[in-house]
Write the structure tokens for this entry.
Amino acid sequence: MAKLHTIFATLIFSVALVAVGGCEKAPAPTFHLNEVEILKQEKASLANGEHFDDSHDDEIRNILSSLFGTPDQPRFPFLQGDEDPAHEFIDFENLEWAAGRVHSDQDGKPISGLYREHCAQCHGITGDGAGATAAFLNPYPRDFRLSKFKFKSTPLRRSPTDHDLELVLRNGIPGTAMPSFRTLPDEEIQALIDYVKYLTIRGQMERMLISELSSTEGKPLLDMSHAEDGDLVAALAKIESTDASTDRDDDVAESDESRSAFEEQLDYLLNELYFEGPLKRWSNTEDAVTEVPPVPESIRTTHPDHSQLVELGRELFYAKGNCAQCHGDTAMGDGQQTSYDDWTNDWIKSAGVDPTDKSTYQDFLDAGALRPRAIRPRNLRLPVYRGGGRPEDLYLRIKNGIEGTPMPAAATLSDQEIWAMVAYVKSLPFEQVVPQETK
């Protein structure tokens, strides 16, 4: 089945390339600008109908290219060289392996293009969730640039661990178009994990640049003419090396007045925006993992206290847990039907946008946004658990919530109450459907 999926996905991607380039050799792919985010910022900071100057887009492209390279030739801004902490979670050789065109050696071992072979047809070359098949899938493929991941062991607003991403790749996501890649070797799985993190960090940096430039009144963030060969990391290293070797009074050396405008701009861009922003989110993710307490024996259906645990879960579902508000009185996902996930809310909350009126958001569609779809709560009567069906998996979904969705963290529930909820949820596919008001 996995082999059939690979053949099917490769066929779709090949057809898409032919559609774009005909019979001629397709041009080298590029990272697309986040036109949706640019449009959102234009609406927020400019007069109606006005747009940023072309130099705005050019500067974003130049900075991102300097820091992250291209789809065929990736870079990564290791600001501290071999000592950079980013080496702990990004292996550059993995980036080179996952990037580029699909290419194998004479024995069939992949040399490059792992991401393009397995992921780009849905998630897009840029990781924007707008690949060739995206518009036909429900739910849409993930847009990595928002740096939000649903199924993970870390709390809301914390990045997932490598193990979290590995589980998604190995198991797929039931009920979606995300397949299992468990047949891939471990090292290829890890290369894809590193590349997803690379696209996420790049996408977050792009969003920050767009936001910063929207408030500069047309002034550039950085004078790229001062960077040799457009290499900002090398320019920063040269500045820091010069500062370290120059005998100056400490107070003067620390003062912004002792630096050129370019040095100040570069320090802000790389240290304040990049290092303290997108990069830091991925540091020490293991330290943020939510510890799952031992699964109680009563969760087993044969345990004499199991029915009591299920009944407690039922009470919590309709009262303290407030689950019925979204999942419905029947737990069939027929509660709240008009909410959107964060990937859609990110732009439909712009002034003047009505998600039920296409004429109010056609410009966003033209910029690359996918048509807004309300997110439907899970039908718990079906034993399909997108983040895993083990009791431990359900514990994490309830305890931490699901990032990017209306599913909140259960901050007021004790561990015992969460296990009771898990027991009740696991029992729902086998329970007769009776509306709550008749109970």
About this structure: Strands lie at 103-104, 110-112. The first strand starts at residue 103 and ends at 104. DSSP finds 17 helices and two strands in the chain. The two ends are 44 Å apart (CA to CA).
